[in-house]
Design a protein that fits this description.
Ankyrin_rpt; repeat; Ankyrin repeat domain-containing protein 45; Substrate Binding Domain Of Dnak, Chain:A, Domain 2; 3 domains; Serine Threonine Protein Phosphatase 5, Tetratricopeptide repeat; single chain; Ankyrin_rpt-contain_sf; mainly alpha
């Protein structure tokens, strides 16, 4: 018995994927809101775009928008997270200075703003017209976006103040090695307290962050100012006088005395 090969049914060919006009695989997925297809292009070794997709993550189209800009305009949260995970630059700006944060703010996409801020988007970046994302949101009457960006900035400023005070504590060039044990404890405990407050207060308002920042400065600023006041050097001044009192009766050579005097002078001008 012979088998008729020609009569056997052929396996159906896989349909050829057609991208939307004027798109690449990344922007196609953004416009189609297809996170899984984007993920597949990165992870499937058989995917036709596997070798090129990474180079397209931060590419800009004819309109000057990156895939993340487009995603932010459309407010597609999961796609934004996937793009950032795959290497999208959150602070990348077009020729006019607009970033993804500006696009989300202009279109009132608050949830997208939260994703970008969590990914360390810079709140202070300005467009060619001098607008931060907050000012862009304000211009388009996106009140909710303005409120969120104010909140994010207040939180950021508190965290930056904590970092700055902690660096001051450990930097001998800045604190001149003149902090007392009590001063060090005050700075350490204050920074720790504020850090824990940020971590444990999930419902903090903009004003809460501002108040915490002011309170931190009120505690630590007097310590910093004290270092720059002449009165803090009385102990060192007395020490110099005591040294002079001790060495004067001794029979040092004139050259040696000149050297000692010079050293004491250098110490004294540092004190003041």
């Amino acid at each position: 018995m012979t088998t008729d090969v020609a009569s056997q049914p052929e396996e159906p060919e896989e349909p050829v994927e057609v991208l939307l006009p004027n798109t690449n695989i990344v922007t196609h997925c953004v416009l189609k809101n297809d996170v899984e297809r984007l993920r597949k292009s990165f992870e499937d070794d058989e995917d036709p775009y596997k070798e090129t997709v990474a180079d397209l993550i931060n590419s800009r189209g004819r309109d000057g928008k990156s895939p993340l800009d487009l995603t932010s305009t459309l407010g597609r949260i999961e796609l934004a997270k996937e793009l950032i995970l795959r290497g999208a630059e959150v602070n990348s700006a077009n020729i006019k200075g607009y970033t993804a944060l500006h696009h989300a703010a202009a279109w009132g996409k608050v949830s997208l703003l939260k994703v970008l801020v969590d990914a360390l988007a810079d709140l202070q970046l300005k467009t060619a017209h001098g607008e931060r994302a907050r000012e862009t949101a304000l211009r388009y009457n996106q009140t909710e976006c303005v409120d969120f960006l104010d909140w994010a900035e207040a939180k950021s400023e508190l965290l930056e103040a904590i970092r700055n005070h902690q660096e001051f504590l450990t930097d001998p060039e800045r604190n001149q090695g003149r902090l007392t044990k009590e001063d060090k404890n005050i700075i350490t405990n204050s920074c720790k307290e504020k850090t824990e407050w940020v971590e444990n207060t999930s419902d903090a308002t903009t004003q809460d962050f501002i108040s915490q920042r002011q309170n931190l400065d009120e505690i630590i600023t007097p310590i910093i100012q004290k270092l720059n006041e002449p009165g803090t050097n009385k102990i060192k001044t007395r020490t110099i006088i005591q040294i002079i009192t001790i060495i004067l009766p001794l029979n040092f050579s004139s050259l040696c005395m000149e050297y000692i005097t010079l050293c004491l002078y250098l110490v004294s001008i540092q004190c003041f």
